[in-house]
Amino acid sequence: MAKKKETKTNKKENTKNKKSFFKDFKAELKRVIWPTPKQLVNNTTAVIVIVLITAAIVFVLDLSFEALNKHGVDKIKEFVTTTSTDEGTTSENETTENTNTEANSTSEDNTSTEENATSEDNTVDSNQTENQEAENTAE
Fold this sequence. Notes:
The protein is mainly α. Helices cover about 95% and strands about 0% of the residues.
């Protein structure tokens, strides 16, 4: 039985709270100083104008950054392709030069080796010739 009484009192308090809330709400709305129609029009116009100006500024900035980005990206791509093409050509030239240099070094080494071999052969030939002449004289 005690619970039934508590629920009844709670329901009465809730309805009192709701009624007092709406009474307080109405009283508060009466204290509000509402703008005059002229102030309302002026403030609304100001807000709309500021929003339109901000939208125009953002639109112009968006277009300009898009154009800069588009042309900038194209220029960067062009620069990268020309640089990579130049580097590729340079790399090919360097490779060709290195190959030519190595070939020249090898051919120079071969030439000096051949010259040394030729001079050794001449020395051997002259020694053999002298030995043969000495043998012929001794006979």
